[in-house]
From TrEMBL:
GO terms for cellular component: cytosol. The gene is rdgB. InterPro entries: dITP/XTP_pyrophosphatase, ITPase-like_fam, RdgB/HAM1. PANTHER family: INOSINE TRIPHOSPHATE PYROPHOSPHATASE, INOSINE TRIPHOSPHATE PYROPHOSPHATASE/HAM1 PROTEIN. The keyword Metal-binding applies. One of its GO terms (molecular function) is ribonucleoside triphosphate phosphatase activity. Belongs to the HAM1 NTPase family. This is dITP/XTP pyrophosphatase. Substrate binds at residues 9-14, 71, 156-159, 179, 184-185. It comes from the Bacteria. It catalyses: ITP + H2O = IMP + diphosphate + H(+); XTP + H2O = XMP + diphosphate + H(+); dITP + H2O = dIMP + diphosphate + H(+).
Length: 201
């Protein structure tokens, strides 16, 4: 019976979100930093490959099952980029790394583009062991449009410019519980919980 899973992330926001979702399974999520595990390299160009690399790395170092998330923004006008480079997007344009600069750079790069469609994507991968031949893979996606300017104070990352047509608001304007229920990470996590129940428990 699995009672502990290492979370291959040091992001406190992700940890809090996923811990709450995993609580009903009676599984404790342990951040890799608590076990002294350094961050894994992420050399790949797809979310699924990077998440798998992170999960395998954490499992190898801990001897426990592990779960990892790789997420980002995919903009139609840029052929799906920034994708796996989302966290460092602003640095490509001479800005320091950070959420506000990422938003600023994105709005500058989209000037003159009529197509403002974009999607936030989250891919979760879980492995029982480093060599697990059947990793569990769950993906969540939320499609919307990039707003002309940031609106709202909730959330982080690109939430202030990610306009969701079905709500008529940006992610940063939604109450946290509504955002989490409808976010890319929320969708991926619900799929992952179902897979763990079905395959591992």
């Amino acid at each position: 019976m699995i009672s502990r899973i290492v979370l291959a992330s040091n992001n406190r926001g992700k940890l809090a979100e996923l811990r709450a979702m995993f609580a009903p399974l009676g599984i404790e999520l342990v951040p890799q930093s608590e076990l002294g595990i350094p961050e894994a390299d992420e050399p790949f160009r797809t979310f699924v490959e990077n998440a798998l690399a992170k999960a395998r790395h954490a499992s190898q170092a801990s001897g426990l099952p592990a779960i990892a998330d790789d997420a980002g923004l995919c903009v139609e006008a840029f052929g799906g980029l920034p994708g796996v480079d989302t966290a460092f997007y602003a640095t490509q344009f001479g800005y320091e790394k950070g959420d506000a600069n990422n938003v600023r750079a994105l709005l500058e790069q989209l000037q003159g583009h009529a197509d403002r469609r974009a999607a936030l994507v989250s891919t979760l991968v879980a492995v029982r062991a480093p060599q697990d031949p059947e990793p569990l893979i769950a993906a969540g996606r939320v499609a919307g449009e990039i707003a002309r300017e940031p609106v709202g104070d909730n959330g982080f990352g690109f939430d202030p410019v990610m306009f969701i047509p079905e709500f008529g608001k940006t992610f940063a304007q939604l109450p946290v519980e509504v955002k989490n229920a409808n976010s890319h990470r929320g969708k991926a996590a619900r799929q992952m919980l179902a897979l763990i129940r079905e395959r591992w428990l």
